[in-house]
Amino acid sequence: MVYVETASGGTRYGDDAFMRFSAVAQIVATRVHDLLISISEHEAETVSTELELARALQSSLTVDALPEVAGLQAAAYRLAGTDTCSDYYDIVATRTKKVLAVVAKVEADPLTRLRYLGELRAAFRYAALYQEAPHTFLRALNWLLLNNAGNSIHLMMAEVDPSNGLVQFCIAGRRVHTGRISPNGDGELIPLAGAPPVGAERGAAYELRQMTLDEGQSLLIVTDGAKTTLNRDGSALGIGGAEEAVCDGLGDTPAHVLRDFAADLTDYVDGGAHPEDLTVALVRRD
Which residues contact 116 (CB under 8 A, 6 or more apart)? Predict the structure, then answer.
């Protein structure tokens, strides 16, 4: 459709004029269409490059081997999202033979996300070296990353003592969930405390929480990428579905449990979608 308007209301256009207008409009429309296609392709290439860079950094920050501590077994798995790179996990042993674990989901613009992944790893390793309590770590990290741009980190940090099964933990935000799983496959998700994500609120009061793992029980940590992990029918796996899938594999080592979980998840998303990272960490007390 061609719409022509002039400042002079008395001007009338004949068929010849409209034919010329139509020809010019067709040429302009083709050029505009080509320009929009070019812009779209450039933006897609930029997003692809940013994602590849983020994946490379994420991979370099991921631990090659998890620690071996008497009385505890740990494993972790991450399904990379097709659209975003956001998750981080780390599990280390302390000098007092405890295990420290962190699982996080970063919400930030692409460049800030890269910086946050690196700063999170450095801060966590420092906290592990000096055996900082989880809530102390979150408060310090919140001071370090506080901003007004909407960038933040949802995370859980936990310290597990194999001698008595005591788990001291702290959760920031709403996108990392935790639970306790019994050897018979019964699971119990722990309610979130409602604390803001790290970097979002000045002076946020992150409180230390506790639970106990009996022998054979496991600590489960999972990011909410499970909520956007869909099968071919469009059904979301969800946090509960991830927990159930992990519970189905109990009875073997955490590494084998998550290996089976990964295989089942690959089948689940076949023909579906997984735009966001999904991370699962499992720490079992022997």
Answer: 106, 108, 145, 151, 153
